[in-house]
Amino acid sequence: MNKFIIYKILAVIISIIAVLIIFNIKVPLFEKIANTVNDSKFKIRKFIGVEHKPDKRVVIVDIDEESINRIGRWPWDRKKIAELIEKLNMAGVVGLDIVFSEPSNRESDNILAETIMNNNNVILGYFFRDTATEDIDGENFEKIAEFSIFRVKMESKSTHIREFNYIESNIPEINESALASAFFSIEPDVDGLYRNYPLGYLYKGVLLPPMGIQLLRFYLNKDIEVILNEKGFKEFRLGNILLKDRNYLRLNYYDNVEYVSAYSILSGKVKPEYFKDKIVIVGITEVGVFDLRPTPIDPVTPGVSLHYTLVSNILKSDYLSDKKLLDIVIIVILPFIALGIAFVKRIYIRVFLYIIVASIVIALSNFLFAFKYIWLSEFYHLTSLFLSAIILEAILFLITDQKSAMIKKAFSTYVSPEVVEIMLKDPDKLKLGGENREITVIFTDIRGFTTLSEKLKSEEVVYMLNQLNTPLTNIIIENGGMLDKYIGDAIMAIFNAPVDIDRHPDRACRSALAMYQTVEKLSEKFQSEGLPPVKIGIGVNTGEATVGNIGSDVRFDYTAIGDCVNLSSRLESLNKYYKTHIIVSETTKSKLSEPFLMRQIDKVVVKGKTEPVGIYELLQDNEKNKAMVKDFEIAYGEYLSGNFEVAKEKFKNLLEIYSDGLSEVYLKRCEELMKSDIDKSSWNGVYIAKEK
């Protein structure tokens, strides 16, 4: 197979993986862009003339500008609110997107409470707080808890449902008069827009329903039954309505919402009969009084309309369904379509085809939204298409330019002066081929640098890498090693290639110790400059490998391959598990001539091997480390003998005295082994069945 075809296939795979990662982990930056792109579906639906009408059984009674101007500034006397509620006595159920959290005058409060009780159709609202100086009292909460979701089946010990710490509720006399209560707290997405409506939130372990769900519960006269798992709502059932695997319902907003002015009701213009058997939601829409809720269709949407939309969506079954699997299928397919387009020779035809495919993606997404109420994230579809197209086009550009750049690129990969000198003396060395020789390989990696770099500015990341790589590279070269390559924040170095050097295992170990000390000093420097600290992990291994110019006729590197190299990389990774900094293989240890301070870490079976390999930690030779190694060897001996209880205590002492991370690992391991039914007669000290 042509090498460039392989590159194209790899480009497609990389594009797919990259987009699937950002799609699944919901990176805030990409989510904001995706939401903006995806929200255009509402405007497109309206533009093409597809009407999306709400259910006529749902009405908003709004305290609007006319009501405020005619009756007086808000808040009104609660007698006036009682008068309004009394005129809604024929409604099936009334939800108040208003909270009466403070007493007014006793007479007005009593009249409002009595009216709510007489109507027997009013659901009061309350809201949650994350922080507050005062919480709801127990007696008042008992009334709210009576109308919680109590038919709950738990499939896990915990659940990923939002839990709040405080409730701001109505005063007790009004709260006790209501048919029920429900919260009207709704959380925005990462960009501040409201797209999703919760099915329930937790307060002190009690599952409480939102206003829209509670209205439907009493209007339909059906109770709520839920099954919860660790992710949240596995099933949410309200009568014949069944929702699965979602904690929120994506709102399908309407273009025309029916508002009835409170003044038109109080003045008698709209008769009580108009609301007969309807769901009525009372809220405030006057600018300067109500809370603005920006939504995909309007940046100043009244909060009350969110409850209205939810209720109508469920009654009409026109709420939006996320089809994550379909999203993933499209994300995977589009790069392969781009791959097919990449074989077209003329670039203007390729660009035209890319545009056609993108147009089809957008049309399909909008069709499913407008007519099937299916919500697809076309931003990620288009990202998948164009990312793969850009990479494929870059490869095509490189193919046309690769001949002129071949020699320059070949030499630029050799950072060791020794290698460059050899190649200049004998250009034939640039041909493919190599030799088998014993080498010692070092792998280093800056711990958590990828996560760390996401929190830094790009110039700070470059500065830190330059500050680290320069002295670390110098240490390698000063000890006779060859810098093989930088791999992001990692380094691979080879000792005893391309020329022979004496005692190469010792040189590698000296380099590892010096690199660790250098990083420790640089970490202190970074902290003094307001940057985060860094730690390094190092793996050292000695063995036979194939060394030479490895690659192809047009692109190759002077490097080493083989099990020796792979094991060095795996040893570096094992530092994370054992909480160490430098791990050396038993092969390297056996070939050392200098008295380095080491302790055996474990016997492990690494990936690709069947026999256990002894691994050792290389430490700075000082009195503290000598004492720690001596005590550790005693504890480790008890561990190897199967005396786990004795070993546990000794490792515990090591952890307390030296804050030794490796002892912490063995302390936990001893506890696990003590709980197991391991046969001590067959115990050989090999605990790890595979590479950690």
How many separate structural domains? 4
Radius of gyration: 35 Å
Number of separate strands: 28
Distance between the termini: 36 Å
Shape: elongated
On the 0 to 100 scale, the average pLDDT is 88
What's the tally of helices?
A: 23
Major sheet: 8 strands, mixed
Briefly note the structural class of the backbone: alpha/beta
The portion of residues forming beta strands comes to 15-25%
If you had to describe this structure to a student in words, what would you say it looks like?
This protein is an alpha/beta fold. The chain has 4 domains: 3-38 and 323-408, no CATH class; 58-319, no CATH class; 425-618, 2-Layer Sandwich (Alpha-Beta Plaits), CATH 3.30.70.1230; 622-684, no CATH class. It contains 23 helices and 28 strands. The strands form 7 sheets. Strands 21, 22, 23, 24, 25, 26, 27 and 28 form an 8-stranded mixed sheet that branches. Strands 1, 2, 3, 6, 7, 15 and 16 form a 7-stranded mixed sheet that branches. Helix 1 crosses helix 14, helix 12 runs antiparallel to helix 13 (347-372) and helix 22 packs antiparallel against helix 23. The radius of gyration is 35 Å and the shape is elongated. Residues 403-416 and 427-432 have low confidence and may be disordered.
